[in-house]
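Let's practice the habit of predicting before peeking. Look at the sequence and jot down your guess about where helices and strands might fall. Then scroll down.
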Amino acid sequence: MSESTHNDAPTTEIYERPDDYDLEHEGDDSDARFYGRLLRRLHPARVLEFGCGSGRITLALAAALPNAEIVGVDASRPMLERAARGLAPRTPGDRDRITYLEGDMREWTSPSAAFDVVVIAGRSASHLLTLDDRLRTWHNAFRLLRPGGAFILDVAMPDLATLAESQRVWPRAQVEFDSDTSNGSNEGPRLLRCTATSYQPHEQRADVRFFYDRFTQQDADRFVGDFQSHIYFPSELELLFTVGGFTSAQRYGDYSFGAFARTSPYLITIAFRPEHAAARRDALPS
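Done guessing? Here is the structure:
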């Protein structure tokens, strides 16, 4: 390892390092399993996943829906290239029905028929930093769905205690060591992650700095990733779905279909484009 401190480490987007992104999520598949179980209940023929990244959740959806066509859209070319590599060893049938495309969730349009489900998983909606970004995305999802289709997304619930702390005269960053992952092999890489989070409460924004240390038996690498995240509140999400033209159907607070409550780590919302939405709603776990 070099003698540099974390402050001297190169800054990069984790999305520019898709192999490290996958290593970061090694063994963390509760969200992928949740979406697979959820979509099996909805029986979609065509699914669109915005922010598909390296295909981590896309492939779980494909496994849960063996007859569905699935389109993954992402703005990061390195992540899409990693997703394409992950698709190469799949069966010819899977390769025929899974498509990865570069695009922006705020404006991407489909060249073919409407979708039965639009998904924004992995808290990817936190990238939408402005109200205009969010409204454009919600309206775009509405346009891309057929009547009765479902729009599903998850967001992290805000840490209200840390938000309150951030309003001191001298704002503080919450620092935590939060991840230690490997590919399960003693000879494979190991990734350690620490995060420092500061809040801009008047803008509903979290400024997150990730400190990564990546180790192999041969060498070590240190890099820093900066991330800005919009902080969603429950009533704000409800308003976005309403303004977007959707009928909210169900909310969950975690990836085990737990009820949304005060201490829930996430808010997962399933909403429908009106027309025949009631029948689809009945398929959801209560």
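How did you do? Residues 23 and 182 are 6 Å apart (CA to CA).
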